[in-house]
UniProtKB/TrEMBL annotation:
Pfam family, one: AltA1
Keyword Secreted: yes
Transmembrane segments: none
Position of the signal peptide: 1-15
Name the record gives this protein: AA1-like domain-containing protein
Main subcellular location of this protein, as a coarse class: secreted
Alphabetical UniProt keywords: Disulfide bond, Secreted, Signal
One of the record's GO cellular component terms: extracellular region
Residues in AA1-like domain copies: 32-147
Compartment(s) of residence: Secreted
InterPro entries, sorted: AltA1
Length: 147
């Protein structure tokens, strides 16, 4: 019985339309034209008004790229300033997030006068750090594509 059912259903399976994975839309991109950069351990220290809890400024930001490249800045602001990462071709700027409070703009110098860039949000959770300080830490893994 099983054999006859398989013979009867084989033509139907052969006639089924091919389903294209919508994530691929044709050929895969050339891996030499982009890089996935994993962000981990992001931590920000903010100074706040102890009475109103309004953020006065960001005192420090620290995080890792791909698990082993250390990036940090003192008084980074939220727009415009770029900081190097541990003597590597990577650098970053802190930006306002689009779906979370904070985002990063990453840069990688690939040759003199050329490089890749990309930006993305990093989800954080903020808590009191004691006194007039708030500590915000990354809560989910984040990957930013640079190209």
């Amino acid at each position: 019985m099983k054999f006859s059912a398989a013979i009867l259903l084989a033509p139907l399976a052969a006639a089924a339309p091919t389903i294209i994975n919508p994530a691929h839309n044709g050929t895969a991109p050339d891996p030499s034209t982009y890089e996935n950069v994993n962000i981990s351990g992001l931590s920000l220290r903010e100074s706040i008004n102890a009475t109103t809890t309004k953020v006065l400024g960001i005192e420090r930001v620290d995080f890792y790229i791909n698990g082993n490249v250390s990036c940090s800045a003192v008084s980074p602001g939220t727009q415009g300033t770029v900081f190097g990462c541990d003597g590597t071709p990577y650098s970053f700027g802190l930006i306002n997030g689009t779906t979370s409070q904070f985002g990063l703009r990453l840069y990688k110098q690939t040759s003199p006068f050329a490089g890749w860039t990309g930006s993305g949000d990093v989800e954080t959770y903020c808590r009191s750090g004691g006194g007039a300080v708030e500590i915000c830490e990354q809560v989910t893994p984040s990957t930013i594509v640079i190209s």
